[in-house]
Design goal:
Layout: H1 13-35, H2 84-91, E1 96-100, E2 103-109, E3 113-120, E4 129-137, H3 146-154
Antiparallel strand pairs: 1-2, 2-3, 3-4
């Protein structure tokens, strides 16, 4: 005798129950494997627990300013150690007068060069004194001899 099947065979209710329980158990096992430490995805290590506090860093206190290192270059004798007013008498009014904290930069310009004079606080004087000089050409900014630039700006 022949039976005709008109559609897909449907599993019985007991088979459906077994399949759904098996599927649920499989998912539960897969999730458990991911969260366990063996064979699953490794998690980031926990940072170590601190057992003692780091002592604070003590900042030294300075009661008096110390003198800046002075640039000693032949030809700069009238500039190094000079005050702002002495530099103005020597070169005229500065193009720039910039303060950074207790340090000061004066910039003097001429056709030949640009002269930057850096003044720092001194323990021997109330006002800052020139401690460093830098010089460059006006045209392209290349370094030039500092003493030659001082000489050129004095005679302008």
């Amino acid at each position: 005798m022949f039976t005709t099947v008109t559609g897909p065979a449907r599993p019985s209710s007991s088979l459906r129950r077994v399949l759904s329980v098996s599927l649920a158990l499989g998912l539960a096992m897969a999730l458990a494997a991911c969260s366990s430490g063996s064979g699953g995805v490794a998690s980031a290590p926990r940072p170590p627990k601190r057992t003692s506090a780091v002592p604070p860093v003590r900042q030294p206190t300075r009661t008096t300013p110390r003198d800046a290192a002075v640039q000693n270059v032949p030809g700069l004798e009238g500039v190094i150690g000079a005050s702002q007013s002495q530099l103005v008498r020597l070169f005229g009014e500065p193009r720039l007068d910039v303060w950074e904290g207790d340090a000061r930069k004066l910039q003097f310009t001429g056709t030949a060069c640009v002269l930057d004079v850096f003044l720092y606080p001194s323990t021997s004087s109330k006002e800052p004194r020139a401690s460093y000089v830098d010089a460059r050409r006006s045209s392209d900014g290349q370094d030039v001899d500092r003493a030659a630039c001082v000489g050129a700006l004095k005679g302008k």
